[in-house]
Amino acid sequence: MANLTIKKGDITTFHVDAIVNAANTGLLGGGGVDGAIHRAAGPELDVACRKLHGCPTGEAKTTPGFNLPAKFVIHTPGPIWRDGSFEEAKLLKNCYTNSLKQAVAHHCQTVAFPSISTGVYRYPLNAACKIAVKTIEAFSVPLDVTMVCYDDQTYRAFLAAMK
Predict the structure, then answer these.
(1) Catalytic positions, please?
(2) Total domains, the chain
(3) pLDDT truncated to tens, each residue of the chain (163 aa)?
């Protein structure tokens, strides 16, 4: 079972084996956490991501962390919220599961996640938090997982989902 903790902060500053990037399917950087990770990692991350030729929603691919304190960046494109009838919940769960599988494949013991799809992709925050917590806590490999919340609203929503 993965051990989950919730913290408020900037994911680009966490000293963990891997941080997860809430990426777009092109893996070429963007806004929000994706842009912050690309800026902090440096231009080498863009080069490495281009070699991956994108990533489907719900899947995950890994690059080195370059200038980040994390050894690896696990990129996972989350679902864009439409109305809940386009397999958004399944795809979001897959983001967390496949990211954790990538962490195990790269021999990671510590992983930090952002809140996937709850920014510009508009996934309802409380529903997304419940999926994240349930999926991480059910993961069968012992990992130390930190959910890194950038703002108070997200932090409170994840604390509520843990209860």
Answers:
(1) 34
(2) 1
(3) 899 999 999 999 999 999 999 999 999 998 899 999 999 999 999 999 999 999 999 999 999 999 999 999 999 999 999 999 999 999 999 999 999 999 999 999 999 999 999 999 999 999 999 999 999 999 999 999 999 999 999 999 999 999 8
Whole-angstrom distance, CA of residue 99 vs CA of residue 96: 5
Phi then psi dihedrals of residue 146, to 5 deg: -115, 125
Residues 115-128 as b or e (16 or more Cβ within 10 Å = b) = bbbbbebebebebb
Angstrom CA distances, 23 to 2, 74, 159, 160, stand at 23, 9, 24, 25
| Domain CATH number, residue 59 | 3.40.220.10
| Cβ 79 vs Cβ 87: under 8 Å | yes
The domain in which residue 31 lies consists of 3-162
Q: Under a CB-based contact definition with an 8 Å cutoff, are residues 95 and 80 in contact?
A: no
Structure tokens at 61: 């691919």
